[in-house]
């Protein structure tokens, strides 16, 4: 998981555990999951698009001679729960990193609340939207405790006291169903617990700010490597932190404005998202509501939904 915006050194209380490489990596990674900090150009909004939080327009991306994205366009609106599906290697994780500001498109444009992003994330704070990226591997720092991992960005860049941050970390962990784990190291956690710690890290924010921007969470294979029961727990947590979903583990409504999930798992498709985008060979070849997925007449979607070896998708 990631977060957006950071600059100062870690507080002294973290120096005993965080190596210089940890701190350097932390400043790069965490600038994608909590407070957005990118350069934008002003763009007037159309009234009917006033609820669009993130838009990709004709996005292309290549790595060397390998063309990953070939003109991807879509919008994420306020309140949406969107899934991105498709075969492996079709650019699903790449489009997440472009939306989060970790990669720049070779061609095409990304708009955040109607403002065109120019370049990658930076340390220049702007208002409008917080973007969180939850990595497939959880991306926790092995040398930091759970408390230090979840509160990393606040320790580094906020004006909150250590006691305030510690209390907020405890509350956020409880909201994802974890209690009494603040002093554990990642090596002492199960796979499912690591996923929940990563989710908590993407949810926490500076509560002392006068204005709290809406947040969009981007999940990269959040249930990968988990057993069916642990997957169900994570899928339900994704729903619970959504402001239009169920209550979280503390019985409070969710605070996430919208989210996008990259997944291969049918259970995640059915339980965690409402609308689907099918990415194949670098393009969106189908989109529709979740209940339309298994009844689509598109042969690519049919093959993916049934797992058949016969069809246009070849390995």
From TrEMBL:
GO terms for MF: ATP binding; ATP hydrolysis activity
Keywords, alphabetical: ATP-binding, Nucleotide-binding, Transport
Record PANTHER family: PROTEIN TRIGALACTOSYLDIACYLGLYCEROL 3, CHLOROPLASTIC
Gene Ontology cellular-component terms listed: chloroplast
Pfam hit, one: ABC_tran
Name recorded for this polypeptide: ABC transporter domain-containing protein
UniProt cross-references to Gene3D superfamilies, sorted A to Z: P-loop containing nucleotide triphosphate hydrolases (3.40.50.300)
Residue ranges of coiled coil: none
InterPro entries given in the database record: AAA+_ATPase, ABC_transporter-like_ATP-bd, ABC_transporter-like_CS, P-loop_NTPase
Ranges for domain ABC transporter: 54-306
GO biological process, one term: lipid transport
């Amino acid at each position: 998981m990631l977060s957006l915006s950071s600059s100062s050194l870690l507080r002294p209380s973290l120096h005993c555990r965080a190596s210089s490489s940890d701190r350097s990596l932390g400043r790069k990674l965490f600038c994608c999951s909590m407070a957005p900090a990118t350069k934008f150009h002003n763009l007037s909004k159309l009234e009917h698009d006033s609820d669009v939080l993130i838009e990709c327009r004709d996005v292309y991306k290549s790595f060397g001679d390998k063309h990953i994205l070939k003109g991807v366009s879509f919008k994420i609106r306020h309140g949406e729960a969107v899934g991105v599906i498709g075969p492996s290697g079709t650019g699903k994780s790449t489009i997440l990193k472009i939306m989060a500001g970790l990669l720049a498109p070779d061609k095409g444009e990304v708009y955040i609340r109607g403002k065109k992003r120019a370049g990658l994330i930076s340390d220049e704070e702007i208002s409008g939207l917080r973007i969180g990226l939850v990595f497939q591997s959880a991306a926790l720092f092995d040398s930091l405790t759970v408390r230090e991992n979840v509160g990393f960005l606040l320790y580094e860049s906020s004006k909150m006291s250590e006691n305030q941050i510690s209390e907020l970390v405890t509350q956020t962990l409880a909201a994802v169903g974890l209690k009494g784990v603040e002093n554990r190291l990642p090596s002492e956690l199960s796979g499912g617990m690591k996923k929940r710690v990563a989710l908590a890290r993407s949810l926490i924010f500076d509560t002392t700010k006068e204005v709290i921007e809406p947040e969009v969470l981007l999940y990269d294979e959040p249930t990968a490597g988990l057993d069916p029961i642990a997957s169900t727990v994570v899928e339900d947590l994704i729903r619970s932190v959504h402001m239009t979903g169920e209550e979280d583990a503390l019985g409070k409504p969710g605070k996430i404005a919208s989210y996008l999930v990259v997944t291969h798992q049918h259970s995640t498709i059915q339980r965690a998202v409402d609308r689907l985008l099918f990415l194949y060979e670098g393009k969106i070849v189908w989109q529709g509501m979740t209940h339309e997925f298994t009844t689509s007449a598109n042969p690519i979607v049919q093959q993916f939904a049934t797992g058949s070896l016969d069809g246009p998708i070849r390995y």
